[in-house]
Write a structure and sequence with these properties.
541 residues, alpha+beta, 60% helix, 14% strand
Length: 541
């Protein structure tokens, strides 16, 4: 039995079930709601009519011939007593007693009146009242008999409906069971009739053909998704280092084929000219690439992304920022060089006017003051020019060993920490190289350490540590100072923003520019030492 036949059989059984339940609803629910009249209800209704006739007869006795009354009374009494015996057996005790009480009061009086109608031996008013009360009792008995009859009839209908529904459900279950049993029997017959496959074609542990097809379909879908990505993707085995998959983007971009699958990652790198085993930024053939490596479930995912356009936009943005900085610097420099220039001007004018009157000592003092102010001007210009200089273009692209660079900076400024009684500790740093020039990194680290010892002033602690996260190196510089409020953590990296007396607001903004040019970032958070933690993130070299 095929899947299509099985589905059609089950749908047929379900359709049969729906139709059967609909018919049951029509048959039993309509019968349940249909009002019925039993034989006892008809007899009680006849008794009520007899009592109504007796009531009219007694009421109209003065205008009726006695000869015509006696046959009517005899017939009514005989009919009444016949019905009375049939219905009183089914009444409840209270209603039966009331019925019998009025019965014993009315019929003796009616017999006396029947013997001599119109003689006055009975009270017509009392007889009419008793007849009226008896008729109400008869009508009440009729209602109770109707309710009991209806309850009994509905109970019988419900029992019949339940039995029919149960029988119908059993028939449906037997039909479904028969369909399933037939399918299993067909599968067993097909399995016994199919020829046995050689052990080499289906070794133990292989998934069944259906599951294998499903896995192949999923694998093809994943391959199609990876082929549609705009980035180059190479998947290799983590243990053997051999290539397992190369997506279409990588093949087209670097002119390699599927024949490289099964080769080592190093062989693929040599063939394609792309060192995919090393993460980070790489420029090749006027194209900027970003390489990333991720290990997932025993496989290594090599991602090669074309960052040429992003790099171009980043350079344009940095150029725009430098132009803005130049405008800010122009106003700042104008303000700062005014005082040294004024001092130089005054001393030059003084020497020019009194050159013949000045002694050699006075002349030397004036010239020394001029030289001092000139040196001050050089420091100001050097400080501000460093903010807009392209370090990446001027410095050597050689990589910077993290441990050596940190050791040199801390060793050179160790006396500064010792003089201020600040405990400087350097933790276990990863043995990696940074993708930033040595002089730029030294300047960045020195600016942050300088901020730390100026914040602490006297006594305290500074700690340097690092790790690797997401293919980038993170360097942590912690201090035990007062920290940086959350509202100022972004402002401190702006040009000329400072909260320190005598500060220029240049160090951190310049450090951020240097790190940004290298593809990194600087952030500040709370430190475990109680102060500020500067996090310098730089790509690996």
């Amino acid at each position: 039995m095929s899947n299509r036949t099985l589905i059609l059989s089950i749908l047929a059984v379900l359709f049969f079930a729906a139709g059967g339940f609909f018919l049951l609803n029509l048959l039993f629910l309509d019968a349940y709601r249909m009002p019925t009249v039993s034989t006892q209800q008809l007899r009680v209704a006849e008794m009520a009519r007899d009592l109504e006739i007796l009531h009219e007869t007694v009421t109209n006795t003065e205008n009726t011939d006695p000869a015509t009354i006696r046959p009517v009374l005899f017939r009514l009494k005989e009919h009444y007593e016949t019905i009375f015996g049939e219905i009183t057996a089914d009444l409840d005790p209270l209603l039966k007693n009331r019925f019998a009480d009025y019965h014993t009061r009315i019929w003796p009086a009616m017999e006396r009146w029947n013997a001599a109608p119109g003689t006055g031996e009975i009270d017509p008013v009392q007889v009419r009242s008793d007849l009226k009360a008896l008729r109400k009792i008869v009508l009440l008995a009729a209602k109770r008999l109707e309710k009991e009859s209806l309850a009994e009839r509905r109970g019988a209908i419900l029992r019949s409906a339940r039995f029919a529904a149960a029988s119908f459900a059993v028939a449906i279950a037997i039909g479904l069971f028969g369909i399933i049993a037939a399918r299993r029997s067909r599968q067993r017959r097909d399995a016994s009739a199919a020829p046995a496959e050689p052990p080499t074609d289906n070794p133990a542990g292989n998934p069944p053909p259906k599951e294998h097809r499903r896995e192949q379909l999923l694998l093809k879908r994943y391959r199609d998704i990876l082929d549609s990505l705009p980035d180059g993707v190479v998947v290799s085995d983590a243990s053997s280092g051999r290539v397992q998959f190369i997506n279409r983007t990588f093949r087209d971009r670097f002119a390699v084929g599927q024949d490289q699958i099964g080769e080592t990652v190093a062989a693929l790198a040599e063939k394609s000219g792309m060192a995919i085993a090393e993460p980070g930024k790489l420029t090749a053939h006027d194209t900027v690439y970003w390489r990333d490596i991720t290990e997932v479930g025993g496989a290594v995912l090599h991602l090669v992304r074309d960052m040429t356009e992003q790099d171009r936009l980043s350079n344009r943005l940095m150029s725009a920022e430098r132009l803005i900085s130049i405008g800010e610097i122009a106003s700042k420099v104008t303000h700062e060089i005014r005082n040294p220039l004024s001092t130089i001007k005054l001393n030059v004018e003084y020497v020019a006017d009194h050159a013949h009157d000045l002694s050699p000592e006075e002349l030397s003092a004036s010239i020394a003051l001029i030289v001092k102010e000139v040196i001050r001007l050089e420091e100001i210009t050097d400080r501000y020019m460093g903010m807009v200089r392209y370090r990446a273009d001027e410095e050597s692209p050689s990589r910077t060993p993290l441990r050596d660079a940190v050791a040199e900076v801390t060793r050179f400024h160790e006396s500064e920490f010792r003089t201020r009684d600040i405990a400087l500790t350097v933790g276990d740093l990863p043995a990696v190289e940074l993708g930033i020039a040595f002089n730029s990194f030294r300047e960045v680290l020195l600016n942050i350490l300088k901020n730390a010892w100026e914040e602490l002033d006297r006594r305290g602690a500074v700690a340097i540590s690092g790790d690797i996260a997401d293919g980038k190196v993170r360097l942590f510089v912690d201090d035990s100072g007062h920290g940086v409020p959350a509202a100022e953590r972004e402002k401190i990296f702006r040009n000329f923003y400072t909260t320190k007396p005598g500060g220029t607001g240049i160090g951190l903004s310049h450090s951020l520019k240097l790190v940004t040019e290298a593809g990194g970032d600087i952030a500040v958070t709370d430190s475990p030492l109680g102060g500020a933690r500067f996090v310098i993130t730089i790509p690996r070299g």
